[in-house]
């Protein structure tokens, strides 16, 4: 990991872009109103090759790069378009020697949400007021050069450059959409001026795709987009279910759309029926693992024209994550949970604002709120927090929250979730697999698991989980975390608070014992048998005070022959039960019935 600080005052960079081939693999970074050209391969002190200060009072948010011969200034290698606030500026990029020279700047009435240069040299500008401007960039640059002659009114920028106060765009078309709120995020895909597609997101969770019609015969004529040119992308639990849309981004091929939102998720969308218009959209993958808002998404594309193989997400939790994408995965409304292959964290403070990928260098660049730019090698991934990255949360309402977590000897994990699922974290792929899913029924509407325990041997493991309606679920899994058998028993009509395994004399049963603590102050002891897998109740112990149990713990004596089970209740009382696992009897009544005996044996309460 390398670190770059392009400005002395540590201003956060809000825009990043690597130069495309055949230009050198340099990085354009925009900290504040400064545009810096950075060489990632150079040392930290020599990394900034050139910089220019623009747009005083504004922050650069958007960058576009074009090598089209009609718009590249004479003697330059590329044209850079930078936008921030209500300004758009164009700069000539020279490689030898490295230089950035301002050639054009214009002020607009609305805030700019994205800029792009089409493949044929047209300039496309998205405005927050739901307007898209298409301008003839070559004619605009020529007009700006001619206007530099006095007596045109001028304005002095922070860089000291003198530019026309009103250098108008030479407009080809203006597109507007009726009944649309202020845009919060925009991404433009423009292979040519007649094939422009714009993805827009609002502060209320709406995501739409605008397919602009061909340019009008009369240049600059306003066009209102109708329903045939607007496609809705449903995010989260319906539109407006995921909070504000922080960012949207087209893949370089224009076939995938990434959405970053306030619900801590990134999503990858594809059109289900691309041959029809308007197209319908389905989710290819959900990028779930951040603990705060996802601020940006970037794609990893091995070669130009190919589909992305990975996606990069960055967020307010100061984490950068890499996710494997499988374009052959069937898309659906919710999307498959993507596999996280790397997780990086080195920024300090709050927020990683932007990410950019250079396949040529094999690095990911991230710009954080600390003002630094970090470079992460794609071939040296680091997993720092697997359980968070692979959290099996589904949707934006938290219905799949992890309620209980237990570890296996091979460093795998088993989790019980709020929506009634038991999952295992598989190694070495580091993805969750489903061991058990409980359907909701009229008799058992609540599937919420509350407790989980694992008993493991050399060949298999037993996973016991209890839910809020008093059911005990037992799943036998192989050494490779594959489910072998499952059984369920109704223990008590009360929520299960604690689940603990008991090792005892084999005379009791062929398998271990299981202690279940219920919220109604009842402790039930079960024995487990194999072939077939079954649970048999041995004893039911009702505590004297019968207060609501809130926790359970157990301890084993040093000799291993006495097990102590302790339950704490809502009044601060702890009740303990001791079991001699080598005795011929448990020391209290054993029911021997098919269900726990209705008349419990009571144990004295410990102070």
Structure write-up:
It is found in: Cytoplasm. One of its GO terms (biological process) is tRNA methylation. Belongs to the WD repeat WDR6 family. Keywords: Cytoplasm, Repeat, tRNA processing, WD repeat. Its main location: cytoplasm. This protein is an all-beta fold and 607 residues long. The protein has a domain at 389-580: YVTN repeat-like/Quinoprotein amine dehydrogenase (Methylamine Dehydrogenase, Chain H). 2% of the residues lie in helices and 49% in strands. It contains 2 helices and 47 strands. The strands form 12 sheets. Strands 10-11-12-15-19 form a 5-stranded mixed β-sheet. A 5-stranded mixed β-sheet has the order 21-22-23-24-28, with no helix packed on it. β10 and β11 form a beta hairpin. The longest helix has 11 residues, at 137-147. The protein is elongated. Residues 149-159, 161-166, 236-240, 384-399 and 587-607 have low confidence and may be disordered.
Q: How many extended strands?
A: 47
Rough outline:
elongated
Sheet with most strands:
5 strands, mixed
The H-level CATH homologous superfamily of the domain at 389-580, spelled out, is YVTN repeat-like/Quinoprotein amine dehydrogenase
Strand order of the largest sheet: 10-11-12-15-19
How widely separated are the two ends? 57 Å
What portion of the residues fall into strands of 2 or more residues? over 45%
How many helical stretches? 2
Question: What's the CATH C level of the domain at 389-580?
Answer: Mainly Beta
- Average pLDDT, all residues: 78
The stretches of 5 or more residues where confidence is low (pLDDT under 50) are: 149-159, 161-166, 236-240, 384-399, 587-607
**Helix/strand class:** mainly beta
**CATH level 3 topology of the domain at 389-580:** Methylamine Dehydrogenase, Chain H
The assigned CATH architecture of the domain at 389-580 is 7 Propeller
Radius of gyration based on Cα positions: 31 Å
As a percent range, the share of helical residues equals: under 10%
